[in-house]
Write a structure and sequence with these properties.
With about 160 residues, the chain is mainly beta. It contains 1 helix and 12 strands; from the N terminus they run E-E-E-E-H-E-E-E-E-E-E-E-E. The longest helix has 4 residues.
């Protein structure tokens, strides 16, 4: 359950939870998050205390299942990964699916790890030509040895 204090609204959704077994020397990845909005992070982010939803100096606010308005040009998404020790980044690809059909695919390229060893993939997906409906957004990360796949639902309002 999520409660939005600003709007005074609550929402409940059930999603599968996969907890991979801990493994030293393996890449780990968080959940793929659709971004509702973003803004410049405050001063706390500059000293490293900005929280987990701060990336590249930007405070991210998750989309909690709200449909993206029709006519929106792009939808932003975020994914944090931790490559295994000794690996310096990941290769990322993006798929947009409707049902079992892949509608589009993009190579997001090499995403390097920062000084703390984290990979923050913050990017945008063109959605203006998708049309109303629900889509699966799937990101695949490869670090030369391990593969992690994360997905999220994107709904575009009519």
């Amino acid at each position: 359950m999520v409660y939005d204090n600003r709007k005074g609204a609550a929402s409940v959704r059930t999603v599968p939870l996969a907890i991979p077994p801990p493994g030293a020397g393996r890449m780990r990845a968080g959940s793929l998050m659709l971004v509702a909005r973003a803004e410049a992070a405050g001063p706390a982010a500059a000293d490293g205390h900005g929280g987990v939803l701060v990336s590249q100096g930007i405070q991210l606010y998750p989309n909690l299942g709200e449909p993206v308005p029709a006519g929106t040009a792009k939808a932003a998404f975020f994914l944090r990964a931790l490559p295994a020790p000794g690996r310096t980044g990941v290769q990322a690809t993006l798929d947009v699916l409707r049902g079992d059909r892949v509608l589009t695919w993009a190579n997001l390229g090499e995403v390097p790890a920062d000084a703390a060893g984290r990979v923050d993939l913050l990017s945008q997906l063109p959605v203006s030509e998708l049309g109303a409906g629900t889509y699966d957004i799937r990101v695949t990360l490869r670090d030369g040895q391990d593969v992690e796949v994360r997905s999220a639902k994107l709904t575009i309002a009519p």
